[in-house]
Amino acid sequence: MTTPENPGAQSYFDKVPKEWDALYSHEHGFMYRVNKALRKGLYERYAFTFEKCGDLTGASVLDIGCGTARYSIECAKRGARRVTGIDFAPSMIEFSRNIARQMGVAGQCTFIQGDVLAHEFTETFDVVLALGLFDYIKDPAPLFNKAASLKPRVFVASFPRFTFPWSIQRRIRYYLIKKCPIYDYSKEQIEGLCKAAGFDWFEVVKNSHGYLCAAGVKK
Ligand SMILES: C[S@@+](CC[C@H](N)C(=O)[O-])C[C@H]1O[C@@H](n2cnc3c(N)ncnc32)[C@H](O)[C@@H]1O
Q: Quick check: pTM over 0.85?
């Protein structure tokens, strides 16, 4: 197995599946309300994703950097025929398999532990998701090319943007404390990546802390 481009992100996320999942969980009432106020972008991207995905009945979905599988599971619940989640943190994959079983969608879901940049996909997908992933990708062009090569009718991704003072404190938290470098993006950069990868259409919109992108390849 090759060393991932961002080993800091791999080892950081491997330690935090429960903490990450708590951001979505209504069981932790008080913390959920705090996170909802502080991490508005997380909830905005969830709503944007399912608006752009449209009807998922019978779809094949690839969820890159699936984390605790919250998007994968929602796709399966919305009728996706086949959902593949990939993440390079082993504990995220273990968590995903368990939660998919608990939610009754394990039959539609497959979870792969691996670096998406190194993984060879042998099929195409109707929908490709990359939420909260590009923050940890130093060179995004190969991943954009890979996503476009999978011929999705919809590709949805999120990107952080530099805002003061949020980005400074985030960099300190991630880089100095968690040893996990993060990367910011501009709208022009994301549009350029979509064009260069060969997507037929794309839109990039601003949200609280970054940009949300929807793109697609016409079949
Ligand atoms: C911020 S979490 C987002 C999880 C999920 N998509 C969500 O929005 O709830 C980012 C995830 O991407 C994974 N990741 C980052 N770089 C990756 C790579 N090159 N290959 C596979 N997984 C990666 C991390 O392990 C982590 O679980």
A: yes
